[in-house]
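Your task
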Amino acid sequence: MKPKVTMIAWNQNDNYVITAVNNHLLRVWNSYTGQLLHDLVGHADEVFVLEPHPFDSRIMLSAGHDGNVFIWDITKGTKPKHYFNMIEGQGHGAVFDCKFSPDGQYFACTDSHGHLLICGFGCSRSYAKIPDQMFFHTDYRPLIQDSNNYVLDEQTQQAPHLMPPPFLVDVDGNPHPPIYQRLVPGRENCADEHLIPHLGYVAISDGEVVEQVIGQQRVDQDEQGLEPSILEGMIRQLQLQQDQRTGGNQESASSGPQNGEGTPRRG
């Protein structure tokens, strides 16, 4: 096998350069002289994650498709800590990315099975309150392009960055209770009735009809005279702005009637 470098990283103070090779070795080099200092042995598959510690220049994290996460002391060539991402009933999960927290006390990883792994010091009791499965209901919604090649959400015809905050759902698209919906930025201070998503059947791009969160649940709004949902209001506002721009362009491109009457616009 011809050796190939798959990843490269500097340590915190730039004294060392660490390279990952496709023969599963990590190598530590002196960045000033180019001298090879250590071969780090431990991984059994290719490594695509090398993460230096935020302030300790001795420490480097590596993670790979073998499910292993190593904490290395690159000055000694040793591995003080090791984590193996074993998933019950499914074998190991390949680790795709890792990052240290700013204080260096924790690191977070994402794996091939959609898990977020948080390792470090302290108690895990606070994390146990969070549901095992959390997705935004818009994560896998199809996108389309308009005539100007701008990206729009296929269902609402809105630009994704103009859409209201999404709802939290499980892997099957079932919404979580309101207490979890308040974890989404932009929904912290919403009333309870605004945290109940509206489920409906929607045809996706391949023609299949599935049940999805399609908007915000309204609680007898027609009877109570309440405002429509945030989503519907934003759609209406964007449509009005588009109509005004279209009408303005038409008026400027052609001369208006001489009797002073305005050209009617599309409602």
User: Anything to note?
Assistant: Residues 230-253 form the longest helix (24 residues). DSSP finds three helices and 19 strands in the chain. The chain has two domains: 5-127, 135-213.
